Each structure stands twice: as structure tokens, then as C-alpha cells.
Amino acid sequence: MIIVTAALKGGVGKTTTSVYLAALASSNRRTSTLIDADPQGSAADWIAESDDEQLNRIEIAEAPTERLLNKALDKVPPEGIGIVDMPPSHERLLNKALERARIVIIPTRVGGVETPRVKAVMELVPDDVPAGLVICSARTYTRSYQEAMQLYAQEGIPVWGTIPERVSITAGPTGPLAADGLESYKKVWRKILAAARS
Ligand SMILES: Nc1ncnc2c1ncn2[C@@H]1O[C@H](COP(=O)(O)OP(=O)(O)O)[C@@H](O)[C@H]1O
Ligand SMILES: [Mg+2]
Question: What is the SS3 assignment for 147?
Fold first, then answer.
């Protein structure tokens, strides 16, 4: 199963989402592959630098070009899980990844400018591939969060989860995975599994 974490913008939570989901995908003695398609290699660095044991069963593949991406995707066994962390604003590479995706995760933040960006990514996703939003670093008690959720509901855009803003999540590789971050991403993970079964 190939899961692509897609956004056409940096700083929305793609890498954080990819790492947490890869950790969940590799629980229960399974391994998962985290395919880092961003030349910055922040997902690969995270896995390399972190002491968190929950990241031990993640295999990392650095694949910042079309050729390397295809190669890394080919290596994911049929029963395995590959999670692709995409760079921002590389639409060509994103399209290549989306062609091979079973599931697409679209991390976003709350804010008026984010909605058209989310829609632009949704347009790139092939019709038969399930896609859902993850609202990252959310302040759930704010009015702008409530309004954003209402808008997505009205427009029929699926939101698969909300990840609260947490200092422990910002810590990235310098700290362990945040317990409540994992709890929130677990809900997203269940949506992914449900979408993959349908
Ligand atoms: N739930 C969260 N709470 C707090 N900070 C977060 C959260 N999710 C992401 N961040 C922070 O936001 C910044 C951008 O996230 P990142 O995952 O690197 O985004 P991208 O890969 O899209 O550029 C990072 O500093 C990251 O630690
Ligand atoms: Mg990133």
C-alpha cells in the first residue's frame, strides 16, 4: 500500500505527518518504508537522528528524483506499506507519486489561504484514489478552526483528522514522538485503513 503525503506548499506538516504515520504503520512487528522524495531529506534525517524506538522498524529510502522515486516504490512489497513524503511545489514529481498512490493524505493548516491550496491538490489526485485532509498544528478552540471545519463539511471535503498544536510535536527528531500526537495520528491511520478496505 502506497500512501502519499501531498501538499503544494512547505511548512504545513507533511514531514511530521509522514513520520508519525510511518511509526504507526510499523507497529505490531511490521516494518514500513518511509520514502523521502524531498531533496532536503528532513524525514530521512529525523529517522536517522531520533532515539525513539518507535522509529526503529522504519526503513528509509531517499528518492528526490523521478527515477529514484519509481525505484523506491517498486521495492515496497505488495503486503508492505510505503509512505511518501513529498517536497513542496514540485508538481511533476507529485503527479508521478499520485499515479502510484493507493491513498493520499493532504496535510494543511487552518486559514483562508489554505482552502484553495487544498482544492488544487485534490484536483491532481486521480478520481479512484481516496484522499483525506489532516489539519496540522491546529488550535481547535479557535473560531477560525471551527469555521474551517464547517467549510470543509459543507463542501464535502473529507477531514481524516486534526492534530493539535504541541511543542512536543515541534521538537521533531530532538525528542520522542509525542504521545498525544500519536493518539491523534492513530485516528488518521484508522481512516486510511478503512479507505484502503473500501
Ligand atoms: N501538530 C503540530 N504541533 C506543533 N508543531 C507542528 C505540528 N505539526 C507540524 N509542526 C511543525 O511545523 C513545522 C512544519 O512542519 P513539517 O512537518 O516540517 O512541514 P512540511 O514537511 O510540510 O514542510 C515544523 O517546525 C514542525 O515541527
Ligand atoms: Mg517536509
Answer: helix
